User: Fold Protein arginine methyltransferase NDUFAF7 from Salvia divinorum.
Amino acid sequence: MLRRALLRPSALRRLSSPSPSHSSFPLSLASVRQCSSSSSSQIPHSHSVEQLEDTPPPPLSATISIDRSNLYNPTEHSHEPSAESELVKHLKNVIKFRGGPITVAEYMEEVLTNPKSGYYMNRDVFGKGGDFITSPEVSQMFGEMIGVWAVCVWEQMGQPDRINLVELGPGRGTLMADLLRGASKFKNFTASLALHLVECSPALQKLQYQNLKCTTEETADGDSGTRHTSTLAGNPVSWHAMLEQVPTGFPTIVIAHEFYDALPVHQFQKASRGWCEKMVDVTENASFRFVLSPQPTPAALYLGQRCKWAKAEEFAKLSQIEVCPKAIDLTQEIANRIAVDGGGALIIDYGLNEIIADSLQAIRKHKFVDILDDPGSADLSAYVDFEAVRRSAEEIPNVSVHGPITQSEFLGSLGINFRAEALLQNCNEEQAESLRTGYWRLVGEGEATFWEGPDEQTPIGMGTRYLAMAIVNKKQGVPAPYQE
Ligand SMILES: C[S@@+](CC[C@H](N)C(=O)[O-])C[C@H]1O[C@@H](n2cnc3c(N)ncnc32)[C@H](O)[C@@H]1O
Assistant:
């Protein structure tokens, strides 16, 4: 329901209509991307969360266990994959050996990042031929504007001569490549950068290596024995599975675009016996189904924490709640780093600045599909709870949190319209059309106040459903474009 309320049927029609492709751009526009695919949050999912039947409260007990005999089994909601993939077998084994269902968060984490067969691990999932498209793939201007933001943070830090530029979940590496190319006029900035890419997928790491035009050199006494350098601006590049592996001791700029939405969420549902966690189980006929935990689960601690941050009236209205403990932990890790080493973080994602009820969605080939259908073959993502992100960061001393503001406001205030105008100077008509389409995809949705174009040419975009939040070291002042 949440996502449906954000969309108009006309938006869906416009999104699915193809737009021209432009493969023969001059250098300056070489990466203005095709815009015919849906972005990862743009179409409502067809999955509707089942209302699970309430059961009487079990006797209180100190141990956390799952009593499946007590659970309702709605067969019409079963989801049997056509052929059993490795991941499906693995999930069933986990449930079998655990002796009970797993949380939605465990399911999501396995589906996305299981080292052998997780959704992200072995392939390129982006673009027209993939499952969804993201802003950096829509237009080069997106990465360029993030570059403008990063240069401003670097200037506010006093232009240090060595900084870590960290990207969490860089996908194809497009954002980073556009950022580096766009910022290349700021020679002292690009010269200061050590690039750190936090990426769990070996397949995507390879793509990032290619797109950043990296070269590899053997080193005589380096830790790993090899050094990767991006020939885009000559910067050293390192890959890590987790942020904590990125070296500390240098000012750090962290970019997280569509990373938080991939972090696993726990889902809770109100029942007569109180809040129960939604779990994933296997039926007797071997298909997946949702069940409710009969007793409190460990993640209830995070539910309690999230509820403290919500207004009582807001909380009372809800019958479902999503919480993302990994988003809270990650935010605090980022904020601690910035508090000690200086720097800033930019989090851009689709989400809301309030508690999220039920937003987990699955997307395959640009369409919403059922969350339990053939796990590992579709992307799973959830709306980012920006209020929880803000509150988590605010618990760390010496950092300040700014926003969220809409992507439209963020890109507009940083000057995307001027960039578009400049690029248009060197376009033929076909390229100009693609550039405008890309622009509108980034800032559109009826609130794009930065473009003087005819209304009927305004595509529905990511401008208001995507939000941008910044966390910076307090000493640096207010970052662009959050100054009043
Ligand atoms: C939705 S994609 C976004 C990609 C890119 N930022 C963009 O906007 O095009 C999520 C990215 O995060 C990576 N990822 C997801 N979960 C991760 C995790 N737990 N640790 C490291 N990388 C992860 C994925 O492999 C992918 O590169």
Q: What stands out?
A: Residues 112-113, 120, 134, 136-137, 169-171, 175, 198-201, 204, 257-259, 262 surround S-adenosylmethionine (CB under 6 Å). Residues 1-484 form a domain with the Rossmann fold fold (CATH 3.40.50.12710). The chain is about 30% helix and 20% strand.
